[in-house]
Design goal:
Layout lengths: L22 E7 L8 E9 L2 E9 L12 H4 L1 H5 L9 E3 L10 E3 L2 H18 L4 E5 L5 H11 L4 E2 L7 H11 L7 E3 L6 E5 L7 H13 L3 E5 L12 E3 L6 H14 L5 H7 L5 E3 L30 E4 L4 E4 L17 E2 L5 E4 H9 L4 H8 L3 H17 L3 E2 L3 E2 L5 E2 L2 E2 L3 E5 L1 H4 L4 H14 L9 E3 L70 H7 L7 E5 L11 H8 L12 E6 L11 E4 L8 E3 L13 E5 L12 H11 L17 H7 L29 H6 L4 E3 L14 H9 L16 H10 L10 H10 L22 E6 L24 E3 L1 H6 L7 E5 L4 E8 L7 E5 L16 H4 L11 E3 L7 E3 L14 E6 L30 E3 L2 E3 L1
Parallel strand pairs: 6-7, 6-23, 9-10, 9-21, 10-11, 23-24, 24-25, 29-33, 30-32
Antiparallel strand pairs: 1-2, 2-3, 4-5, 4-25, 8-22, 12-16, 13-14, 15-16, 17-20, 18-19, 26-27, 27-28, 29-36, 30-33, 31-32, 31-36, 34-35, 37-38
Helix pairs in contact: 5-13, 7-10, 7-11, 7-13, 10-11, 20-21
Amino acid sequence: MFSFLSREPVHDPLDAPTPTADTQVKTTTCYMCACRCGIRVHLREGEHGPEVRYIDGNPEHPLNKGVICAKGSSGIMKQVSPARLTQPLLRKAGSERGAGEFEPISWERAFDMLAERLGKIRATDPKKFALFTGRDQMQALTGLFARQFGTPNYAAHGGFCSVNMAAGMIYTIGGSFWEFGGPDLDRAKLFVMIGTAEDHHSNPMKIAISKFKRAGGRFISINPVRTGYSAIADEWIPIKPGTDGALFMALLHELIASDLIDHAFLKRFTNAPQLVVLDDCERQGLFAFDPDPTRGPPGDGRNPHNKLVWDLEQGSVKNAYPEGIADGCDPALEGHYTLADGTRVAPSFQLLRDRVASCTPEWAEAITGIDAQRIRKLAREMGETALRQAFELPIAWTDAWGKKHLTTQARPVAFHAMRGLAAHSNGFQTVRALAVLMSVLGTIDAPGGFRHKAPYPRHIVPNYRAFNDPGMIQPNTPLNAAPLGFPANPEELAINPDGSPIRIDHAFSWEHPLSAHGLMHNVITNAVKGDPYRIDTLLIFMANMAWNSSMNTMAVREMLNRKDEKGEHMIPFLVVCDAFQSETVAFADLVLPDTTYLERHDVMSMLDRPISEFDGPVDSVRIPVVPPTGQCKPFQEVLIELASRLKFPAFTTPEGGRKFTGYPDFVVNFQPQPGIGFLMGWRGKDGTEHLRGEPNPKQWEAYAQNNCVFQYHMPETMHYMRNWNREYLDFAKDKGWRQRNDPVQLALYSDTLQSFRLAAQGKSPGRQPPDALRERIDTYFDPLPFWYPPLEEASTDLDVYPLNAITQRPMAMYHSWDSQNAWLRQIHSHNYLHVNPLTAQAAGIADGGWCWVESQWGQVRCMLRYSEAVEPGTVWTWNAIGKADGAWQLAPGADEARKGFLLNHLISEELPCAGTASGRISNSDPVTGQAGWYDVRVRIRPAEPGEPEESFPQMASMPSAPGVLGKAASVLTYFAGRVKK
């Protein structure tokens, strides 16, 4: 019996739930953020079927082990959100986009409209259809749909999220942070976190940090702001945004100068000893190689392992593999040498040493704001912990060249970094610098360091070529490659013969060659400008492009409604699929109501973004725990239906019939290669095979009976050193995660980047960049990491706009989704601009006062709060709490609209660029196209007396869409298996 003020807990969250006669408990996977924790959903039979009454963490789930956050437990309020869309909607004839005036239509009419329109596009010019998805966890399906349609115009959210992190690390060490790798805090002694907000890997990271600190580990946070994880760090080192790369270069300078580096690791497992051509020729800056094809293993096809090293023992050149790693050979890491044909060469590590020679702590202090002596101390602490507190585990393993290692070497320094590094226009090279820093310490896939998660590590460069042949864009024809991938050289760019972009977002063009995730933040701007061409239909899933997902929000809203001289919209047909009445829904021509995560099937697949652990692969699913609300359909089902109606080859039989009855059937039976499917658990006709096997018609039932998750524990001999672990490499190839089983040597020096630079310099044959972009490619495609100021600074008067402005997501909210949540709104109903008291007082702004924040691109009015937990040159706020009035079914005048605000109004999606057709170029990293969200510079001033005490700009209130729930359902209080009214 619950007793008021009793110290006795209401219930033990780890206890198995006790269903009553009218309650039941189902397991599924959370989607209140991208962490994907296991949850238990408590249900009670209601008037119209089962109703959610309580959500808690699932103690039997390997990812979160029962831990749940505020977002996860508040999923019940998302389910009954007043903003829920419940039926397909068509914009009323004669109404303007943005007015939010719709009429309900049937799904059959919606499907007929889409099938007819998309069918005509596919039969004439497939690239006029663009599919861009936001917070998507099913890219294996959406990417397949685009490829089967025949359009290259497909991208996911990564381009405006963290593609710099993914690409920068994958092109360097074969894996990256979060889903594909992370810090081994179980064995680390020092943990350094850089640029990471509290939403990144949320619950598992909290669990790991808590355990790490209780075990006596030391935690250092390097961030402009001390919130979230940083608040419990042993030491906070404030840094100016966008300068992390300079810090890493200075740390490399100190580590190399002090010889606190892992020589043995560098020589055997990286390209540090491989010889680089120094002569001025078409191979300048590339690795020297043995032209004899019989010498050395062939490699992955695009990067053969036929490079050369200099043997100090014999004073002669040798093949890097296997001679260069043979017993008795001592590959040089430094020096300058001459090959037999007179070619001058040097080990790539020598070039790295030369690069960081001038990157002193004093140099970095002037850039980062961190004291030079603190940088020296930090470097010494990292190096001494990695090398002098090292230990060995009694785990034997065999490397890719057959050498038996009796133990596994630990390097107990772990790092973690995310969007704070990625969301800058210098982020790719910054992330490269961090990956190189981790590599020289020998921490890659070592105990206590950075550890991969299956299916990573990938090849460097991964064997996923993006579509790049304009001749293959043919009517009613699938593309011969996926729209997204990893280019290895200029020949793999998605460009036309004249060098212009194939894609509407300019991804994989000379503007952004390695844009592995596409540029979602530029699709609307480019489509409206017709650059490089006009499109017909844009389908947006789960992305609030008319509000917080766009840079330059007001201009994007105007562009969505812009018309040509004939009175036709510049983007003729806009389809929006969402579960809620977001700001973007108001601009749609056709609205498709999506389900919530509690109403649909989903897969967190090895073909996409699994939830793997360090000791082996893990995938998971969502299984509906309640029926769909109203007429809502999962977007996955929408795609399967359209693919079947449009007769995509992968979705139909040779006779033209449907191959799949729906999404669950597709997940079970679709196989990209024999025995490999979306789910790896309980395969085979009888469900007894794992990782690989025939489709199992009862696979979904097996997952439902096992907490919606499958986990495979690899033998201990495969847990570490997986870039070079022969047993793991063979295993991964057999299970379909890799095309080849060759080793993945770390790319301290990137000949991939150098191949683009040579083209820009006119030294190599083949594709050449436009003259206007030669200097850009030459500058930023440096094979060694380097720091440069964010690109926006070149077009900004830094004296007029002296402050950096950044956003973070609060721990209790995720994107736009949760500021409509009735429970979470009580934590954050609006946001403030957080400013150091010294900075605010110098501007004459009181704590809690109204102020103006101005950039060269726009201005916002907001409330300001003093905070000592932010470095003086930075201002920041929570992202996506501010809302347009009436959106998300918030009451008129709600705090989110009147007090909340977006920094997006201060950011431009383009920057000046002389020589381009428009004189503009995306405000993005020049290598990957990552949006430069955190590059904007601002100034602040107090609001004038008498000004309205409300945020600026303000929007006209959105009307309610037909069929929205409109009011929260009454929710009963759940106590320990009993429901009280």
